[in-house]
């Protein structure tokens, strides 16, 4: 038998081999599934014609279709063996006619084809030279050739660095990847960040944040690229306004010249400050006059309210009297109705028994007319009482309106008397223990101070305090916050609010051990944007854990709560804040 293994040439031996090595299948599709190519044979498909065997390859191991070494051998009934993929291609190309063996023309019947595992073992153990011969002198079996090529130092490989197309032997690849490849990653000498070597120069010249560059305003200084925005705040070449602009100085020049101007024009600036103070004093006088006028209005409203009380009192008494009269009339009417009912029954009985007693009937009719007149009088009294009740309700409504207006005027007057316009406020919190206990019970969770301002036309603000703590400080700390309120001049102010705010709990012992914390607003927070005109306030910002309650109530060297009173101070840094 041609192409078979030695010692198995008889028909009986072929039958034994077929029954022992592979199960015959009746269809062509089953031939394709029984000959699945193993990984090492699949990988050798691309180089099977360039393989160099140590010993000359036997003709029986040469595929008659591709003329290369047989990979995954499939044997036909004629005894010849073929590569699995070659036989598969032959069957697919001859789908309309019966395929034949290219050696002797025997028809290939798919049902008679089987996998020749005996030849497969012999072929897999054949020795071959490495494909990188003569550089590599290794000799391996065919089935281990791919394993050898995965570690062969002479195998040609492409550089794995992105953008590099270099192909070189494995023995040189490590040196190339780490030391010579122009596309390797190296740390930037300035920022130490990993960068591709070919792009290192562009990175240093255009984007490295730690490279020192010349100031774009040509102030002769070199600063790191990422500190350019910070440098602008101190660059002497940047245009800036005189710090006395809010008092009337209109000079604008480079920062260095402005500083010289401020040193040289001290007397002029003092005059501007004095003029501004005089103007503020005039405004204070105007506000005091307005407060006096409002107090007089309150006094007048109080007198008017007292007069209304006097007018309403007689009406209330008269209404009570009328109610008693109506009640008496109703009782009389009820009795008369009972009498009328009895009389009517008597009349009916008398009419049946004494048809001739007309005189008595006439008297009974007169009595009935008198009762009807009394009922009519009672209805008239009831209508009069309804009119009196309407008058009483109208006067009560007027009294409520005057009471609301009086409370509003009192609150406005108190606000005018306590309002601060210099960005500072000292808040006196009395009944500290009771308010703290009420807050712990959930009755009054928050206290709010009177408003204060950073100027006559400045930002309007207020303090908020949680005596029993808020958030993560609840039950353990005093919580203090500052909140921006809608003001009359918000449209003229700069937003967001950027001034540093300091909060303090004051020591009442005289030792001066005040507890203070401050914060600088985050410009991106909504809490420091312009408050909406229709809102009560922005979200409060501050410290939920300002000071522990045990330190607040029982300090060692200070007295923060004295006579059940706590003093809280807020101070807004007015530096750089322009006054309108």
- In total, the number of domains comes to 3
Supply the CATH architecture of the largest domain: Orthogonal Bundle
CATH topology of the largest domain: Helix Hairpins
Low-confidence stretches: 1-37
Keywords, please?
3 domains; 16% strand; Helix Hairpins; five-stranded antiparallel beta sheet; 580 residues; Herpes Virus-1; 14 helices; disordered N terminus; alpha+beta; Apoptosis, Tumor Necrosis Factor Receptor Associated Protein 2, Chain A
Protein described:
The protein has 580 residues and is an alpha+beta fold. The protein has three domains: 139 residues, Herpes Virus-1; 151 residues, Helix Hairpins; 149 residues, Apoptosis, Tumor Necrosis Factor Receptor Associated Protein 2, Chain A. Helices cover 42% and strands 16% of the residues. The protein is built from 14 helices and 23 strands. 15% of the residues are buried. The N terminus is likely disordered.
Concise account of the structure shown:
The chain is α+β, with helices and mostly antiparallel strands and 580 residues long.
Show the helix and strand layout:
Blueprint: H1 11-21, H2 28-34, H3 39-44, E1 74-75, E2 81-82, H4 84-93, E3 114-115, H5 117-124, E4 127-129, E5 139-141, H6 145-149, E6 156-158, E7 167-169, H7 170-180, E8 185-187, E9 194-196, H8 200-206, E10 212-214, E11 222-224, H9 228-232, E12 239-241, E13 252-254, H10 255-264, H11 266-353, H12 358-418, E14 424-429, H13 432-440, E15 447-448, E16 452-453, E17 460-466, E18 477-485, E19 501-505, E20 515-519, E21 541-548, H14 549-553, E22 561-562, E23 565-572
Antiparallel strand pairs: 1-2, 1-3, 4-5, 6-7, 8-9, 10-11, 12-13, 14-23, 15-17, 16-17, 17-18, 18-21, 19-20, 19-23, 22-23
Helix pairs in contact: 11-12
């Amino acid at each position: 038998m041609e192409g078979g293994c030695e010692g198995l040439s008889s028909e009986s031996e072929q039958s034994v081999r077929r029954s022992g090595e592979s199960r015959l299948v009746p269809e062509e599709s089953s031939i394709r599934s029984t000959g699945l190519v193993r990984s090492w044979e699949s990988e050798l498909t691309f180089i099977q014609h360039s393989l160099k065997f140590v010993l000359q390859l036997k003709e029986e191991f040469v595929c008659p279709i591709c003329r290369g070494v047989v990979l995954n051998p499939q044997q036909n009934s004629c005894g010849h063996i073929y590569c699995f993929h070659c036989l598969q291609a032959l069957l697919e190309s001859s789908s309309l006619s019966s395929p034949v063996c290219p050696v002797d023309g025997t028809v290939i019947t798919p049902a008679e084809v089987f996998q020749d595992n005996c030849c497969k073992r012999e072929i897999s153990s054949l020795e071959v030279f490495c494909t990188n011969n003569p550089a590599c002198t290794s000799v391996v079996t065919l089935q281990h050739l791919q394993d050898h090529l995965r570690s062969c130092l002479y195998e040609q490989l492409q550089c794995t660095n992105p953008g590099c197309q270099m192909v070189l032997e494995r023995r040189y690849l490590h040196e190339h990847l780490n030391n010579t490849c122009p596309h390797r990653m190296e740390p930037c000498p300035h920022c130490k960040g990993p960068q591709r070597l070919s792009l290192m120069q562009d990175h240093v010249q255009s984007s490295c944040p730690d490279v020192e560059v010349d100031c774009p305003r040509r102030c002769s200084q070199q600063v790191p690229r990422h500190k350019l925005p910070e440098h602008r705040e101190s660059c002497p070449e940047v245009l800036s306004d005189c710090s006395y602009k809010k008092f009337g100085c209109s000079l604008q020049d480079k920062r260095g010249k402005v500083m010289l101007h401020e040193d040289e024009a001290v007397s002029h600036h003092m005059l501007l400050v004095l003029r501004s103070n005089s103007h503020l004093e005039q405004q204070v006088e105007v506000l005091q006059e307005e407060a006096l006028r409002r107090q007089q209005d309150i006094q007048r409203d109080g007198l008017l309210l007292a007069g209304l009380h006097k007018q309403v009192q007689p009406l209330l008494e008269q209404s009570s009297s009328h109610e008693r009269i109506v009640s008496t009339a109703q009782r009389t009417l009820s009795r008369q109705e009972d009498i009328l009912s009895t009389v009517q029954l008597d009349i009916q009985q008398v009419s049946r028994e004494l048809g001739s007693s007309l005189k008595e009937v006439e008297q009974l009719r007169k009595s009935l007319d008198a009762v009807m007149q009394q009922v009519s009088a009672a209805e008239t009294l009831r209508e009069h009482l309804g009119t009196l009740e309407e008058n009483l309700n109208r006067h009560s409504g007027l009294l409520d309106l005057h009471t609301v207006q009086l409370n509003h005027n009192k609150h406005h007057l108190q606000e005018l008397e306590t309002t601060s316009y210099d960005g500072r406020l000292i808040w006196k919190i009395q009944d500290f223990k009771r308010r703290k206990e009420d807050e712990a019970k959930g009755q009054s969770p928050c206290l709010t101070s009177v408003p204060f301002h950073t100027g006559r036309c400045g930002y309007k603000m207020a303090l908020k305090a949680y005596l029993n703590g808020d958030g993560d400080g609840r039950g353990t700390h005093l919580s203090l916050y500052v909140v921006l309120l809608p003001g009359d001049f918000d449209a003229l102010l700069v937003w967001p609010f950027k001034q540093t705010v300091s909060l303090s709990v004051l020591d009442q012992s005289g030792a001066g051990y005040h507890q203070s914390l401050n914060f600088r607003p985050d410009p991106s927070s909504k809490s420091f944007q312009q408050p909406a005109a229709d809102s009560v306030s922005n979200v409060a910002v501050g410290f939920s854990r300002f000071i522990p309650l045990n330190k607040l109530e029982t300090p060692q060297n200070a007295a923060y709560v004295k006579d059940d009173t706590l003093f809280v101070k807020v101070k807004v840094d007015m530096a750089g804040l322009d006054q309108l």
